[in-house]
Amino acid sequence: MADRFRVAAAPGGLRLVQELLNTAAPKARSNSPDLLATPERADAWMHGRGIPAGTVDTAALRSLRDALRAALVHREEGGPAPSAGDGLLEAPIAFRLSPDGSVHTPGASSGVTAVLERVLLAVHDAQLTGAWARLKVCRSPECRVAFWDQSRNTNAVWHDSQTCGNIANLRASRARRKAGEQDNTP
């Protein structure tokens, strides 16, 4: 899925979060279908990640994706905090301690519940390790592709500085030039 928009894949469980975010095509790439638009597409997407589909609720999957995207945008750009939407981002997750000391989830859930459990666990683990700060969405409102920030200082804001970054910088330059011209008019 990281290949879909030519971005580096997030490590571990965060890759599922990134792939969920990137099921939606950026506005600028209307030729890339929304992978959660129909139950058949959503089922194929979940199957490709080893998640039993069960009954596919595409609206709930899209709501989860949109809530995650809104949270990342809020974290990076500020503005009003997104609402969680009637407990959508809550999941009772059971853990089991194996005799060897490893902790597992029973894994009996399917569909949206399985995606939600895996996503929330991945985000929680990433927050504990600090990796959560490296999963971002492109600052371009026309894009919003989720990407893994590989920069040294975790300060990347565009998934591709040559496309989205160049466009943003060009717009800013034109706005400054236009403001300068207006200041010089008698």
Automatic annotation (TrEMBL):
Coiled coil feature spans: none
Gene3D superfamilies assigned to the protein according to its UniProt record, in alphabetical order: Jann2411-like domain
Residue span, Zinc finger CGNR domain: 134-177
Superkingdom field: Bacteria
InterPro entries for this protein: ABATE, ABATE_dom_sf, Znf_CGNR
Descriptive protein name: Conserved protein containing a Zn-ribbon-like motif, possibly RNA-binding
